[in-house]
Design a protein that fits this description.
The protein is an alpha/beta fold. The protein is built from 19 helices and 36 strands. The strands form eight sheets. The protein has an eight-stranded mixed beta sheet, sandwiched between helices. An eight-stranded parallel barrel has the order 11-12-17-18-19-20-21-22, surrounded by five helices. The longest helix is centred in the middle third of the chain and has 19 residues. The site of zinc ion has 9 residues, from helix 10.
């Protein structure tokens, strides 16, 4: 119900009757707080008439064409405190929707708030729903007790449409199971920011979540795994769960695309039905992460028949035209050793196992095509030749998308460089996501098109309670990239503008119970040399409104403190801990930076290896810069090489009395990261003649299977030995051993810092 206003306002008159507005101008982007993604065109009266708009209270009269289903558009209103009625008389309406013929673009709509009505137009219900999300963002998040004092909707005219058609989030509900209600909450947040695809990852090595009537053990056995600590993790969706989630999504104009992984990432299925694999071996549902060599047997006709039955049931449950069939990360070792696979290769005249994979996917694609569906697969499906009609999802960079569009098919982009939300903020922050260019020039004027993008939320390291904060606000950055397009996101000042509008959207999230994560790493550590053996450290804010207290902790005790923005001098090995505050309030986040003030830090250093360009550890001085590695081998502090030895020598400047040498190594065999076969430590007085003073790891067999992912600290006591030069050599253990999924591939070694403690630094 309107509180006041009975005449046709200036803006409505201007819009509907073609009158000239007294003064209307396009606003700088983002003037309207809370409007995310930024509409293509926003006009408001200028400052002289600011404050104009429509006065409303907690009762709204809605008008819409009879045939439209407005459940989703209105259901949030009641929970937010509004009551509404449908009126058949447009002149009585507070909010009126009209269908128009004039083409408004992809999911296009207009929205005009005048003094006495909100008018929305669209070409269809989808456009109307997008208009409704814009209106919701303009309204207060909540109308408490019927908002007795009312509120003003700002006078505004919006013309809007989508830049790209496919705007999605991949949600991996396999590595960690997510409750149906949680999946619906995710859909709600996606819909509010005009995303329209939930790419639902339902089958994996570590868990099968899809109900299949013909093969009940897929969920009964494949839905559960025993964790390393003996506990059981698992769950699966019933057909009723899926029906209810799909209904919820459809009401919000979100398409759910199921992903049924084949022919790899299927250990859970093999655990349920071992005959699906090449060896027939009995396997468990694994509780570790990585790429497994046991995949579906592509030479066994029964396996193909199984897969078709599964896909038949998928088609019964999911109306989406697109069915994602995975296709990524399929080791070919089992197929190379399997009589059935080899016989199929010969029978079909295929060149190799890559073509066998294409054949497998081709068969599934044809089967789905016969049911009016279309397959989408990760960019590996291009490797043996593009399966007919398949859409490609490019994740290993943008090359897959470029090749796909060149070959004349559609592509969706979600490169690891910008779209992987399982990556920590230090790898991919909101700003990076926001600056993503989903359609590079090379993809223009090709026979196929890039039709959209997704961000990918893989959940190996994210149980349900951590997912929301990982997805948002980064997925909101991608929503603007894909809806508003580069004409908005690539403009100067666009990101700051986006952040300003995001603050307004936060009120709606708070009402919805959504707690977003930080936009990026909140603080940065600056290290500079101090007197030899000590470091000057300063922690600086890296996000707007970030602050907090900085502590230097040794063996868990905080021994020194200062504020963010100040500096302090530290000595010896320890951890800089920052209790992060945002806008002056504690966040509960503690950022940690392992450091060491030691004799070799910032001294001249020479390397006997070429660090990997992906893991330099921070440059030429990385192994003696005072920064040690964390539990995350991608934190930027670790230096690595693949398939070679590593060696570092440091000149301490003068002869010193040494107490001990230290370093950290990384162990993560699933990622091909092994411990060195040996670590050799040497010292020298003149830099020419070196004495071997000790070795580490010689009691460990570094190529034995070890499922842990961890740092391994090594050290050597020197008890006052005198030396000017110190050196450390890491001996590479060779290729991945025969038991490993990447057997014969060169191993990686990671090391963080060559710490040299003198008598002074060791004593605390
Ligand atoms: C993927 O991230 N393996 C598609
Ligand atoms: Zn086989």
């Amino acid at each position: 119900m309107r509180i006041e206003g009975c005449c046709i306002s200036w803006l409505l008159a201007w819009t509907l009757l073609g009158c000239q507005s007294p003064s209307v101008h396009p606003l700088p982007q983002g003037h309207v707080k809370g409007l995310v993604p930024q509409p293509q065109r926003v006009e408001q009266p200028d400052n002289e008439v600011d404050g104009r708009g429509m006065r409303c209270d907690g009762q709204l009269q809605l008008f819409w064409p009879q045939e439209w289903d407005v459940v989703a558009a209105t259901d949030w209103m009641e929970s937010a405190g509004w009551s509404w009625n449908r009126t058949e008389d447009v002149s009585q309406a507070d909010v009126a929707w009209t269908l128009v013929e004039q083409n408004l673009g992809l999911e296009g709509y207009t929205l005009t708030v005048s003094e006495d009505r909100v008018d929305m137009t669209s070409n269809d219900a989808e456009g109307a729903f997008r208009a409704w999300t814009t209106l919701r963002q303009l309204m207060p998040a909540v109308c408490e007790q019927g908002c007795p004092s009312g509120f003003t909707l700002p006078a505004i005219h919006v013309e809007d449409h989508a830049y790209l058609a496919h705007r999605g989030l991949l949600l991996d509900c396999c590595r960690h199971f997510m409750a149906p209600e949680f999946v619906k909450e995710i859909i709600d947040v996606l819909a509010l920011q005009k995303m329209n695809v939930l790419h639902w990852h339902l089958t994996e090595d570590q868990g099968w979540r899809l109900p299949v009537k013909a093969y009940p053990k897929l969920t009964e056995v494949g839905g559960f795994r025993k964790e390393a600590d003996g506990s059981v993790h698992g769950g699966f969706y019933t057909r009723e769960d899926i029906r209810s989630i799909l209904e919820h999504a459809a009401e919000r104009h979100v398409t759910v695309i199921p992903e049924i992984e084949l022919p790899g990432h299927c250990r859970a299925a093999l655990a349920a039905y071992p005959w699906l694999g090449c060896t027939g071996d009995s396997l468990d549902v694994p509780c570790n992460w990585g790429v497994f060599k046991d995949v579906y047997c592509a030479g066994n006709d029964s396996t193909l028949a199984f897969m078709k039955t599964v896909l038949d049931e998928v088609c019964e449950m999911f109306p989406s035209e697109i069915i994602h069939i995975g296709g990524d990360e399929v080791p070919k070792v089992r197929w190379a050793q399997c009589a059935k696979c080899q016989s199929k290769i010969r029978l079909l005249g295929l060149r190799d196992e890559a073509e066998l994979q294409t054949h497998f996917i081709q068969e599934m694609g044809a089967h789905l095509a016969s049911k009016g569906r279309r397959i989408m697969g990760w960019d590996e499906i291009l490797e043996g030749g593009l399966p007919q009609g398949a859409m490609v999802q490019s994740w290993r960079g943008m090359e897959g998308a470029l090749e796909a569009t060149h070959l004349g098919t559609d592509a969706v982009v979600s490169p690891t460089s910008h779209c992987y939300l399982d990556y920590p903020l230090r790898s991919t922050d909101l700003k990076e996501v926001y600056h993503f260019v989903p359609v590079p020039e090379a993809a223009l004027d090709q026979p196929g098109s890039i039709v959209g993008g997704e961000c990918n939320m893989w959940t190996e390291r994210a149980p349900q309670n951590e997912v929301m904060a990982k997805v948002f606000p980064r997925a909101t950055g991608l929503a603007e990239v894909l809806w508003s397009g580069p004409q908005v996101t690539q403009k100067e000042g666009a990101y700051a503008n986006f952040l300003d509008r995001l603050d307004g959207l936060g009120q709606h999230w708070a009402f919805m119970g959504v707690e977003p994560g930080l936009e990026g790493v909140p603080v940065s550590l600056e290290i500079s040399p101090s007197s030899q053996g000590a470091l000057q450290i300063a922690v600086l804010p890296a996000l707007r409104k970030a602050g907090g207290m900085v502590h230097f902790a040794k063996d868990g005790d905080r021994v020194q403190s200062c504020k963010v923005g100040e500096s302090m001098t530290i000595q010896g090995m320890g951890v800089v801990e920052v209790d992060v505050m945002m806008r002056g309030r504690a966040t509960g986040v503690t950022e940690t930076f392992p450091v060491a003030g030691h004799l070799a830090a910032h001294q001249p250093l020479s390397l006997g290896h070429d660090p990997s360009a992906s893991y330099t550890g921070g440059g030429a001085q990385a192994l003696a810069d005072g920064r040690r590695g964390s539990q995350d081998f991608r934190d930027g502090a670790w230096q690595a090489v693949q398939g070679d030895n590593m060696a570092v020598t440091v000149d301490l400047g003068e002869v010193k009395s040494l107490r001990s040498l230290h370093a950290q190594l990384y162990l993560y065999q699933d990622a091909w990261i092994f411990l060195p076969e040996q670590v050799l430590w040497s010292t020298s007085m003149d830099g020419v003649a070196f004495d071997l003073v000790g070795q580490s790891l010689d009691d460990m067999s570094s190529l034995e299977p070890d499922s842990r992912q961890k740092t391994v600290a090594i050290d050597l006591p020197l008890e006052g030995r005198k030396a000017r030069y110190v050196s450390m050599e890491l001996v590479n253990p060779g290729v991945c051993p025969s038991w490993h999924d990447a057997a014969t591939e060169p191993t990686w070694m990671f090391v963080d810092e060559f710490v040299v403690l003198g008598d002074l630094e060791g004593l605390d």
